[in-house]
User: Fold this.
Amino acid sequence: MNTDEITRRNALLGLAALGASGVVASGSTSNTSSNAVLTQEDLGWDDATSKYTLPDLPYAYDALNTVIDEQTMRIHHDMHHAGYVKGLNNALSKLNLIRWDQGDDSLIQHWQRQLSFHMGGHINHTLYWSGMQSEFSGGGGQPDGNLAHMIKNSFGSFGKFAKQFKLAATKVEGSGWAWLVYEPLSKQLMVTQMQNQQDMMFTGAIPLLGVDVWEHAYYLKYQNKRANYIDGFMRVINWTEVSKRFERARI
Ligand code: MN3
Assistant:
C-alpha cells in the first residue's frame, strides 16, 4: 500500500467518524437518512487526491458589506480559512504516517490536537459562510416554521434566544465562537461558547448557527467593538439555511 492509498484510507475513516457525530454526510444533502448538516462536497473533499480543498464563498466577497467589509471577507476566507484546510490535510497526513510506522510516535498528541483545531476550523468556517446572507436578499429577521417553534420551546422566545446568543458571543474569552446547537439526546436547542476552533463543545452537539468572534472576523471594521459586529451579524443570518440544518439534525 503506497502513501496515497494510506492517506485515502485514513481520510475516509475520519469522515466516517465525523458523520457519526452529525456534522458530515457523504453524498448530497438530499440524503434524508442522515442528520448531518454538511456534505463532503460542502467541505471540498476531493476523492482524486484524498484531500480537502477550500470551497468558494457562496456569494461575492462584498455581498455582506453593510455588516462585513470586502477586505475582511477576502483575508478571512482566502488566508485564514485556507490555512485551516492546509493544516487539516497536513495533520491527517502526519497521523497516517504514525499509524503505518513511518512517523514519529512521540508527536501523536501534537498532531491529534492539530487535527481537532484545523478540522474544527474548516467545518466552523464552512458553516459560518453559508449561515449568512445579504440583508437585501433575505438575511436577518427571524426563522419561521419548526425552528421558530423549537426556539420558543427551548429559550422562551426568539428575543430571549437572541439575548443569550449575543451575550455568549460577546463574552467568549479570547478567540472563539458562539453556537446555536441541537442536542439530539434531550432534543433541545442550546447556546454554547467555543474557544479557539474546538474547545468547550460537548459530545454529540450538532451545530446549526455559529458566529466567528476571532478578531480576524471583525477587527478592520469594528476594532474592539465586538458587540457591534455581533449586532450586525444578527442582520445577515441566513435563517432559511439554518432551518434546513435543523430539519436534518433532528432526523
Ligand atoms: Mn475565522
